[in-house]
Structure formats: structure tokens, C-alpha cells
Amino acid sequence: MKIRTGFVSNSSSSSFVCITTKQNFKETIKKCHPYVAAVGKEVFSKGRFTGMDVMVYTDYCDMGGNSYYDHLNDNFDFDGDIPDNEEGEEMEPWEAIEIFTRKLQENNESEVLTDSRGG
User: Fold this and answer.
1) How many CB atoms lie within 10 A of CB 97?
2) How much is the pLDDT for 41?
3) pLDDT at 99 (0 to 100)
4) What is the pLDDT of residue 64?
5) Assuming Cys at both sites, which of 14, 38, 100, 102 could form a disulfide with 118, CB separation 3.0 to 4.6 Å?
6) Mean pLDDT per segment of 10 residues, for the chain of length 119 residues?
7) How far is C-alpha 55 from the chain's CA centre?
8) For every residue of the chain, which 3-state class applies, written as one string?
């Protein structure tokens, strides 16, 4: 299986998808900071892929830089401590999504498919 990770930044628009098994998703949730887990639960949804029950996250960023992250910042309510990012500032939801998708791969890389494309 070919896996590409990360987000495309050199194009006018980009998209990202992450698909994992429900089991890997559940195991990874338990290993994450509560904020990262809450963001993961917020952005992933149930789906079916090649006949299996899976968890799916997809995002699209348009030419104006608008993406799901922008809406999550306004609507996501987390009642707890939000960890700091590498710069010592409060972690943004998009940073938590990147951490969560990396942790999914660390937990069981064979059960994760990611792809990012620019257009």
C-alpha cells in the first residue's frame, strides 16, 4: 500500500484523506492527550472501505485558504486543558489533527491509508 503523509502547501488548492480501521482508531484514541483525542473524534466519521468498517477524515483547502479547520476553530468546544504546541502556544485544532494522524500510523501503520494532493 502506498502511503503519503503530510499536507500539500505548494498549490492553489489541496485535499487530504486519512482512512483507518475502527480498531486502530479506538486504540489510538486511548493513547492520545484528551484534547488530541477529542479533535480526532470530532473530525473522523464512520465509513466503509473495501467492505470494512473504517474511520475516515477528509479535508479540502480552497484557493482562498479556507478549510474545515477554520470551522472547527469556531464550533469545537473542548472542556479541559489544551496542550501547548512546539512554539509554547496553545495547540490549534489543525495541529491536533496532524498529531492524531501521525499517532494512528505509529500505532499500526498497516491499518492506515493517507493521501494528500494539490491541484
Assistant:
1) 24
2) 92
3) 93
4) 67
5) 14
6) 45 74 96 95 90 88 66 74 93 89 93 77
7) 11
8) CCCCCCCCCCCCCEEEEEEEEHHHHHHHHHHCCHHHHHHHHHHCEEEEECCEEEEEEEEEECCCCCCHHHHHHHHCCCCCCCCECCCCCECCHHHHHHHHHHHHHHHHHHHEEEEEEEC
Question: Domain extents for the chain?
Answer: 14-118
Cell numbers representing residue 103 in the block = 499517532
Nearest to 28 by CA among 17, 39, 13: 39
> Which residue has cell 486504540?
27
Task: With both helix axes pointing from N to C terminus, report the angle between 68-75 and 34-43 in degrees, rounded to the nearest 10.
Answer: 120
pLDDT at 116: 77
Closest Cα partner for 83 from 72, 68, 96, 71? 96
Distances (CA, A) of 75 to 7, 27, 62: 23, 26, 20
Q: Which amino acid appears at position 115 of this protein?
A: D
